């Protein structure tokens, strides 16, 4: 566990340096897997590896690295809009709006420590959640309509 944590800290430090090279527009979508390949680090077991192994293991840093501050602002407004939308459903039933809010929080925090932002299976899980919760909200609001 300790070696993974140290490796993440090294990745994030290197990512920060690369973000500062092009802070406003970033290095381009999907570029994080190639950015770290030109710089090797040595881990605790004395094994050389890329400074960024496929992605920075932090969604916010990955968005900023690849899409710049502009992309990060768009990402921020997307998250805020999503939370506002969930809050608007709160008027109907708090239990129904709490479940997707917990899912959003889980996805956000897991994305801050683990998976790459653009991984297709990760995006698919998020989309499936959106579909399931939209069906739940549609069913919940249709029950409240007068016959």
- Strand proportion, as a percent range, falls in under 5%
Q: How many helices in DSSP terms?
A: 5
End-to-end span in angstroms?
58 Å
Output the helix-strand order. HHEEHHH
Mind describing the biggest β-sheet?
2 strands, antiparallel
What portion of residues is helical? Answer: 55-70%
Q: What strand line-up does the widest sheet have?
A: 1-2
Structural class: mainly alpha
Query: What is the strand tally?
Result: 2
- The average pLDDT is 81
Shape: elongated
Assembly type of the chains comes to: single chain
From the alpha carbons, calculate the radius of gyration and give it in angstroms: 19 Å
Low-confidence runs: none
Explain this structure to me?
This protein is 67% helix and 4% strand. By secondary structure, it is mostly helical. It has a two-stranded antiparallel sheet with strand order 1-2. It is elongated. The relative contact order is 0.12.
In short:
With 147 residues, the protein is mainly alpha-helical. It is built from five helices and two strands.
Topology, element by element:
Elements: H1 2-21, H2 32-35, E1 40-42, E2 48-50, H3 59-89, H4 94-113, H5 120-143
Antiparallel strand pairs: 1-2
Features:
single chain; mainly alpha; 147 residues; 2 strands; two-stranded antiparallel ribbon
């Amino acid at each position: 566990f300790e070696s993974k944590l140290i490796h993440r800290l090294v990745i994030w430090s290197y990512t920060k340096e690369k973000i500062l090279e092009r802070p406003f527009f970033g290095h381009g979508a999907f570029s994080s897997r190639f950015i770290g390949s030109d710089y090797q680090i040595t881990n605790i077991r004395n094994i050389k590896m890329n400074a960024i192994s496929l992605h920075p293991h932090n969604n916010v840093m990955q968005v900023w690295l690849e899409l710049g501050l502009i992309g990060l602002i768009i990402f921020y407004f997307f998250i805020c809009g999503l939370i506002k939308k969930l809050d608007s459903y709160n008027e109907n039933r708090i239990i129904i709006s709490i479940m997707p809010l917990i899912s959003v929080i889980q996805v956000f925090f897991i994305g801050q420590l683990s998976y790459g932002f653009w991984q297709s299976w990760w995006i698919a899980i998020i989309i499936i959640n959106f579909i399931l919760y939209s069906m739940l909200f549609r069913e919940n609001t249709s029950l409240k309509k007068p016959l």
